[in-house]
């Protein structure tokens, strides 16, 4: 019998600044931990927890992780955690905020450019490749605000409720027959099913 596929899901963010748009990846990690019953415990470089869960009808050995380091230099700690667990970049999934996507949407991408996201750049450098899975959590943008002020701003009450309730359902992890993670998000969809990831 083959062993369950193993995945590392890491949320990008800044631990000293929770509940901001830039720390949305870590907020979703906390919610996934609560939903799956995985307990996050501190170690030298971050918080992690592991368990075997059912995802997309398949049994998956899932590790959740968030770094203690500021986002822009968090890549080495995430890469080190993957290597410590014997996981290649193809088994790493990153949750990160995205100003290129509409608020409260989720877009999947394998590889590709960091699009100016310094947390993603840090991980690409640490892994030596961009061939890992990216789950981009849309935070949108406001033309009247400096981008840095906007992403470091606190989530609105609507955004926080969304990402701690139905937004987590919309960002549910699914696996296909090759155990490649599939994510989807249509804000109007509450009942989930497996759908192909957006490549945009």
TrEMBL record:
Does the keyword field hold Hydrolase? yes
Pfam families named in the record = Pept_tRNA_hydro (PF01195)
EC annotation?
3.1.1.29
Q: Classify the source by domain of life.
A: Eukaryota
Q: Which UniProt keyword terms apply here?
A: Hydrolase, RNA-binding, tRNA-binding
Q: Which InterPro entries has this protein been placed in?
A: Pept_tRNA_hydro, Pept_tRNA_hydro_CS, Pept_tRNA_hydro_sf
Provide the transmembrane region boundaries.
none
Q: What class of enzyme is it?
A: hydrolase
- GO: which molecular function terms? hydrolase activity
Family, according to the entry, reads as follows:
Belongs to the PTH family.
Report what the protein is called. Answer: peptidyl-tRNA hydrolase
């Amino acid at each position: 019998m083959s062993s369950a596929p193993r995945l590392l899901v890491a949320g990008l963010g800044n631990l000293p600044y929770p509940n901001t748009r830039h720390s949305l990846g870590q907020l979703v990690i906390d919610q996934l931990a609560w939903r799956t019953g995985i307990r996050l415990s501190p170690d030298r470089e971050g918080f992690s927890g592991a368990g075997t869960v059912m995802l997309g009808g398949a049994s998956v050995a899932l590790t959740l992780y968030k770094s203690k380091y500021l986002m822009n230099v968090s890549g080495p700690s995430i890469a080190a955690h993957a290597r410590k667990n014997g996981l290649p970049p193809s088994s790493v999934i990153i949750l990160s905020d995205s100003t290129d996507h509409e608020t409260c949407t989720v877009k999947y991408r394998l590889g590709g450019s960091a699009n100016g996201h310094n947390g993603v750049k840090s991980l690409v450098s640490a892994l030596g490749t961009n061939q890992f899975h990216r789950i981009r959590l849309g935070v949108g943008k406001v033309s009247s605000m400096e981008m840095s002020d906007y992403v470091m701003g606190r989530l609105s009450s609507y955004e926080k409720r969304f990402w701690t309730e139905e937004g987590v359902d919309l960002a549910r992890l699914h696996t296909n027959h090759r155990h490649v993670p599939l994510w989807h998000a249509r804000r109007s969809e509450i009942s989930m099913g497996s759908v192909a990831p957006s490549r945009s």
